[in-house]
Amino acid sequence: MNNEKNQSLGPNTLAVRAGQVRSQEGEHSELIFASSSYVFANAAEAAARFSGDSPGNIYSRFTNPTVRTFEQRLAALEQGERCIGTSSGMSAILCTLLGLLKVGDHIVSSRSIFGTTVNLLSNILPKYGITTTFVELADYEGWEKSIKPETKLLFLETPSNPLTEIVDIKKVADIAHNHNALLVVDNCFCTPCLQLPLKLGADIVIHSATKYLDGQGRCVGGAIVGSDALLGEDIYAFLRTGGASMSPFNAWVFLKGLETLSIRMRAHCQNAQQIAEWLENQKFVEKVYYPGLKSHPQYDLAAEQQSGAGGIVSFEVKGGKEQAWNFIDSINLFSITANLGDTKSTITHPGTTTHHKLSEEQRLEVGIKPGLIRLSVGLEDATDLIEDLEQASSVVT
Ligand SMILES: *Cc1c(COP(=O)(O)O)cnc(C)c1O
How many whole angstroms separate alpha carbon 342 and alpha carbon 108? Predict the structure, then answer.
C-alpha cells in the first residue's frame, strides 16, 4: 500500500495492512526474509544498485523486506513519511543524535527520561563534544532559558517515567522551532495508539519496540520516525555504516505486534485505570500517579493530548523503602522486573533499580520518594491484579 492510499485508511486498518508486499507464493501472513544479501541479474545491475542509480536490496545491514514492512507500518501509524528500524531503542536514540549532531552542538532534554538515555547524554556524548542541559519536563520557561546558540535539538518523553508527568508537546515544539532546533519525542509509553507527537509538531519520534510494539516481552528493537528529509540523509547514513540494523526476525515479531497494538493498548489503559482508582482509595497508599485520575495535576492536558492514559501506574506506600520492599516481596502475580509494556504485569522499586544511580538527594529532587513503586499493568484480569495488590498490602498495614 502506497502512502497516498494510507491517508484515507484508519489506524486499525493500517496496523494490520500497511507495508505488506505479497510474494509470488501468495502468503497471507508476512514473510521473514532471512537473507543477509541479495542476488543481482547481472554485473550491470549490481553496479547500478551500488551506485544508487537503481533502487533495491543489496545487503540486510542496509535494507531488508521484512524490516521494510515493519518500517512502513509504523510510519503509517505515527503519520510520518519514513521510519527506520534499529537494533534497540537505545540505538534509535544513538543513530538520531549522532546522525544529526556534531562536535560543539548542544541538546536540551527533560530530566525524567529513560535512565540509559540520561547516561548516553551525560556521560557518553560529551566525549564526542555534544553536551546536554537537563530541565524539568513541564517547566516551559526552563526549556526556553536553556537554549543556547549551539542548541540543535530538544528531547523529551511524555508521560515521564516513573511519575507520569505530562508536557504539552505542541508548546515545546514551538519553543524548539522558534530557535531553529528540532524536537525529538520518545513515544515509548504511549505508542501511536494513544499519542501522535508528529501531528503535535515534533520532528522525530523514537521508539523502543521492545516495549509495547512487541508487547509480549520477546525481542529488543527500536525505531525512528520522521520526514524523509531528516531521516533519509544523515540518520540513515549513520545507521547503515554504524550497523545498528534491526534483524528480520525481530522486525517480523514487531510488525505482527503492531497488528494488535491498539486493542492491547486499550486493554492496558482499562486495567491501569481500574488499578489506579482502587489504589487511590487504600489506606496504605500515600499517593497515586496516573494521568487518568482526576487528582493528576495534568489530567486535562493528558485527556487532550492522549487518547488514553497508558499502562504505567506509580504509587507511594506509607513507611518508605522498607515497606515498599515488603510490599514487592509479598506480590504473587506481578513479575518483579524493571521491564514494561508487556502482557504480563510488572512491579519495580524505581529508587533502588531504574534510578539507583542517582543520589538520595537527586531522587528527591525529581520526586522519586523511597516508598515509590511502579507498575506496568498487563493484560491479566484486573480483579486478579487488584486481589494480588490487596493481599500484598496486608504486610504494610
Ligand atoms: C526501554 C526504553 C528505551 C530503550 O530501549 P531498548 O530497546 O531497551 O534499547 C528508551 N526509552 C524508553 C522510554 C524506554 O522505556
Answer: 30
